[in-house]
Amino acid sequence: MKALHELSAAEAGRLIRSRDISPVDLVEALLSRINAVDDRLHSYLLVDAEGALDAAKRAEAEIAAGRWLGPLHGVPFGAKDNFFSKGLRTCANSRVLLDHVPDFDAAMVSRLRAAGAILLGKLNTWEFGTGHGLHFDDGVIPAARNPWNVACFTGGSSTGPGAAVAGGTAVFALGADTGGSIRAPAAACGITGLKPTYGRISRHGILPNSWSMDVPGPMAWTVEDCALILQATAGYDPADAATVDIAVPDYMVDLDGGCRGLRIGYIPDVGDGIASDPAVRAGMEDLIAVLKDGGAMIEETRLPLPPARYREVTSLISGSERATVHEADFKAHADLMGQELRGHIMMGSSARAVDYIAAQRMRRVLADGLADLIDKYDALVLPGAHHTAPLIADAEKVRDFMGHSVTAVFNVSGHPALAIPTGFDDAGLPTSCQIVGRYFDEASVLRVGRVYERARPWSTRRPEL
Amino acid sequence: MSDNAPFTTDDASRFAQRYGLSALAPEDMATLAAAMDRMAAAGLAVTRVESRFNAPAHQFRVRYTKP
Lengths: 465, 67
Hints:
The structure holds 2 protein chains of 2 kinds.
Chain A: H1 9-17, H2 23-41, E1 44-47, H3 49-64, E2 76-80, H4 107-114, E3 118-123, H5 159-167, E4 172-177, H6 183-189, E5 192-195, E6 215-220, H7 223-233, E7 263-266, H8 278-293, E8 297-300, H9 307-333, H10 339-349, H11 353-374, E9 379-382, H12 395-404, H13 409-413, E10 417-424, E11 430-436, H14 442-455
Parallel strand pairs in A: 2-3, 2-4, 7-8, 7-9
Antiparallel strand pairs in A: 1-3, 4-6, 5-6, 5-10, 9-11, 10-11
Helix pairs in contact in A: 2-3, 5-6, 7-14, 9-10, 9-11
Chain B: H1 9-18, H2 29-45
Helix pairs in contact in B: 1-2
């Protein structure tokens, strides 16, 4: 049997339900793991050992009394530190909010607690989820490290969630994605990350980075885990005007339905002139081969426009929104902010309203163009991160890892997008690929990902720390 | 009363050049400088909403029709 800290969420949930393990044992194992490795990983900003152990004891008693709440009951998770957590400091790795203790939980945290999951602590992030990953050592704690090689970059901005899941300091994690902040760290850390449709999950209680681009979502070892977490957290929330009041399907029903007859649009060349690393390319081709073997109909296609056109729009929209979010704090105490955040706020503050509105108009054109393409298929397959995780010390490659990633495209459009591991390169660093679906059709995205996950169980491999 | 120095016609010329307002004549620069002053003042005059969670009114929505 695997060590407890190596279990996926689904595995842990099954073992808890069958009472082969107790939530208390699982929480204690994770706390031991945190003690053993987190001085190297820096995955946590705050660990709530006492609160997690209390919750685990309650879960154990509830399950023993026959009040099992579902497949996440008793399963510990971490939340990126821009998710509000009642009674627990939420500072988003910023000195601006060092004393900030929310009096309510973010909707996603609240729904997970209702499903019986246990919040273990708050995870590292770039300050307020902003940046390109350049390291200036001016955060509340040092930058998170990649468990596959602690000299390497985790991707970001959900650095802690990526490091925590891959490093075994959380069974699963919550991230938030403005331009790739779930999918880039999932790719760099060799785990699975889902950015659902904009409006599928409530953002209520998540410190905003860019109101119109931010999407929270699960980060976990497997597609199955992501489906379970999405099931527990998706749905309309009157507290978030972006959420859409539509039914949430049962994501588990067709998860193992295979891909026979599904139409897959394959985009091997996204038109950005950037060559994926050979191992990344090989992984994507392997994914396509597996889908073909499974009976999917593969058709090569292209993005309506190259990724640069989408990035131009995000610079103006996210930049302006971000500068507005932080304007008051920037005026009052810019000295408390890190270099990357200050630079981004200055950039956003320099945008003209005319350009911002032009970007909004172009966003509608870009989103509708992508929707017209994706609506022809059950899913698209294309690169997410073109590269494996670079060394943290190599600033140029760190910038390229984020800047080359084909992720912001789907924040502009709002489509659901999954980063899924596709293997390892010669240096033992994980490779990843991106699966994208129609609006609110996360079920098809997960189903396609699950086909590959079952054929190539890369997520059973664990880093040595 | 603001103690900020008003934009000059040189500021306006640089702005016009930077943003491609090439059809403006030199005599338009005084008008542009005054407009820049007025809009900067208008921007600063907008009351800032305190809550970070208060999203802009033109909230983005994805294209979706209920089946």
